[in-house]
């Protein structure tokens, strides 16, 4: 499968995709210490390429990304 979109950092990636169908917020959408998703069907972001259609929420979600 090939997906195109806007990346957060430059480069290429290859791996297993964890795709969400709804807008996603890191604040409240994922447990920063375990990587477990709290949205849709769940799952874990560890060793996955997280793909979602658009973000939502505030800049506080970046602290959750630091925890991950």
In the residues, how many domains can be counted?
1
Q: From the coordinates shown, what is the CATH architecture? A: 3-Layer(bba) Sandwich
Shape: globular
Order of helices and strands: EHEH
Structural summary, described in words:
- The protein is α+β, with helices and mostly antiparallel strands and 68 residues long.
- The protein has one domain (15-68): Glucose Oxidase, domain 1, CATH 3.50.30.10.
- Helix content is 16%, strand content 9%.
- The protein has a two-stranded parallel ribbon with strand order 1-2.
- It starts with 16 loop residues before the first strand and ends with a helix.
Quick synopsis:
The chain has 68 residues and is of the alpha+beta class.
Question: How do the strands and helices of this protein lay out in sequence?
Answer:
Blueprint: E1 17-19, H1 26-29, E2 49-51, H2 61-67
Parallel strand pairs: 1-2
List keywords for this structure.
68 residues, 2 helices, two-stranded parallel ribbon, alpha+beta
């Amino acid at each position: 499968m090939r997906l195109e979109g806007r990346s957060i950092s430059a480069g290429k990636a290859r791996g297993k995709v964890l795709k969400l169908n709804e807008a996603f917020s890191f604040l409240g959408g994922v447990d920063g210490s375990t990587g477990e998703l709290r949205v849709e069907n769940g799952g874990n972001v560890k060793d996955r390429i997280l793909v979602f259609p658009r973000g939502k929420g505030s800049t506080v979600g970046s602290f959750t990304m630091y925890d991950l």
